Please model this.
Amino acid sequence: MPDGVTLLADRYVPAGAERAPVVLIRSPYGRRGLFGLLYGRGFAWHGFQVVMQSCRGGFGSGGDLDPLGHEHDDGLATIAWMREQPWYGGSFAMFGPSYLGFTQWAVAPYAGPDLKAMATQITASQFRDAAYVGGAFALESALSWTTLTEHMGRRFGGAAGLTAPRVTRRAVLSGRPVGELDLASAGRPLRFYRDLLAHHADPAPYWTRRDHSPKVGEVDAAVTMLGGWYDVFLPWQLKDYAALRAAGRRPYLTIGPWYHIDARHLGPSMAESLAWFRAHLLGDVSGLRDQPVRLYVTGAEEWREYPDWPVPGLRRRRWHLQHGFGLGTDGPLESEPDRFRYHPDHPTPVIGGPVLLADSRPRDQRRLEARRDVLVYSSPPLESDLEMIGPVSAELYVRSSTPYADVVVRVCDVHPDGRSMNVCEGVRRLGPLDADTLGDVRRVRVELWPIGHRFRRGHRVRVHVAAGAYPTIARNPGTGDPLTHSGGPMVPSDVEVFHSPDHPSAVIMPLCAPPG
Model:
């Protein structure tokens, strides 16, 4: 590297091939073991050279790990080095999921015309908004990842991937303040965890060199993306897709019924990437599908192909919260608000939902719905199937006894046997300067995860409204204190949710015509 640090890389070469196109993979998780077998040998067997590099600060590479901070400079220096090698044939692609995908976005706009293709999976060009989802702090994901990376570089550190979620869960249930949870999970202060806490209130300076989203539209390489409906990065991955489309590009997009660490997306990731690289580096387009967008529709349990995202023919429909905890497309009648109390000493828990290092598939929510700090609104049984494919948002009118409160919204599919399975969710953290204020009632917009789901005939649509989802997001102490605050008394919040003609709280969902 320009600063004298040495990064280690392994090179795989297909037998009998000279100066074949290169697939560059930069990883903080090591170069060998499963990664070497699956990615290194996997692509080499199909005629590509592969350069797998350990990012700075781990698995033999020098320097200190500063997550996300060095990937732009180190990545470009690696590409420059690669071009000087006698085995470089003049074209390359980049590949990788999660952090490996971020390393691609960090250099792609600057990599030059010999970067022909990118294959990114379960990732985004910036991780800031996933760390501070809706303005809250994604506690479980942040703590589990920083705990994982703390142990990975050590001997037998590969087991950290199995133990980090359990260690993290034990830490968050310890009762210690958020600023000390790294001590409970890792036994020592974790630099990146503490950086995330410190830059929550004013994220811009820290994140400037870690946010590559402004340049996504300038990427000339052909891009294919793979994501999951239950992945923590899906909303921001789709923003990257939209940026490419706005710039006139034609990326491919696949979304399956997967979560972040779901092994089921490994096969499709390799198959789609190989087809993509053969098309754009070798000129063989026989493996490309007819339509650029491929989605798995949950509930219908089938794959669909579309020309774009959002899918054509999308109509946005408001599902209003109604008196008596009803939910429907008719406007609400005049009624009193519903009320609950959120107490941060006993935070509203979460069951399932997108997190980084855990199984995020839908789970039965009935135990959560029995709590007094969760409002539950349900539609009548559906008279016909409804397909909803696209973005989801909520517009709620709320009043809180403290200006510092969270608004959590969740959509569920209620089966005839009573199972209430979560489909998507979102959060918005409020403060005293929140702009959406009408008198003492706030109009709060919450962005939920996008969906591709069929609500079947006889099922019901259900919406939760709460003020916590612990430990997916850090509890809101109700005081406005920074996340680094060492503790102290927390303030309960009495929350009112309005549903009347003047305050028509609703969840806005994407209604699509089912295929004929």
The mean pLDDT is 94. Residues 315-512 form a domain with the Jelly Rolls fold (CATH 2.60.120.260). The chain has three domains: 9-126+211-306, 138-199, 315-512. The longest helix spans residues 266-281.
